[in-house]
Amino acid sequence: GSWGALLPKELSVLGRTGGQTSALWVVLAALFAWIGDKRAAWLYCCNVPIFSISFSLNSLDVDARCRWDDWLAVTPMEPWKIVLSKYAFTGEVLLLLSVCGVLAGRLTASMELEAVLVWPAAVLTVLMTGTNFPLVYRLGRLKGTLLSVAVWLSLLLLAMAGDGSAYRWVRDASLPERAGVGLLLAAWTAGSLWLSVRFYDRRRRGLYG
């Protein structure tokens, strides 16, 4: 079967709280836009991947409670398709947050918010997603998430303590620079997906306890 066939199940998880989360995100994004300084931009940039990944982790929790992986193990669905659906779901949530963020930016007439949304927040989400999934599939949800958050939180705090040059470079990158970063992110995601599939398959066979 196609990995896309798994997305309706993922969207049903989002549908349970999607409306409330979307409304909350519009309010938060509007607040960040109203504050309007560098640190507010960083906070917005940090919260996009956190919201995106939290939905994926919630999906993994639902899978564990419903023994979803046990059911998939007796179907022809290959492990890479199962794992890819999780990555795709994170991308869908990112798209939803992006739409809400643009709406909030329009409501507050904040072009800065839209600039933060379109590129730096998406870049950070891809980087954090590429770190989080392999760690979760290898170490388990709690340990993997804590380690991923600790690594990226430390890096973000260091960036926030600086002069903001890293953020401004990502935000103001030229089209060729963004294309280069996009290629690097594609390679990062491909490597992350390969590791996640390997760890998922081993975990499903009971090799990690």
Feature tags:
single chain, 209 residues, mainly alpha, 8 helices, 86% helix, globular
Structural features, described:
The protein is mostly helical and 209 residues long. 86% of the residues lie in helices and 0% in strands. It is built from eight helices and no strands. The two termini are 28 Å apart. 29% of the residues are buried. The radius of gyration is 18 Å and the shape is globular.
How much helix, percentage-wise, in residues? over 70%
Spatial extent as radius of gyration: 18 Å
Which secondary-structure class do the elements indicate? mainly alpha
The span between the termini is 28 Å
Let me know the average pLDDT: 77
Taken as a percent bin, the fraction of beta residues is under 5%
Number of helices: 8
Provide the succession of SSEs: HHHHHHHH
Name the assembly state. Answer: single chain
General shape? globular
Q: What composes the largest sheet?
A: none
Number of strands: 0
Query: What ranges have pLDDT less than 50 throughout 5 or more consecutive residues?
Result: none
Question: How do the helices and strands line up, and which of them pair or pack?
Answer:
Blueprint: H1 7-35, H2 38-66, H3 68-73, H4 79-107, H5 111-139, H6 141-161, H7 165-171, H8 175-204
Helix pairs in contact: 1-2, 1-4, 2-4, 2-5, 4-5, 4-8, 5-6, 5-8
In short:
The chain is an all-alpha fold and about 210 residues long. It has 8 helices and no strands.
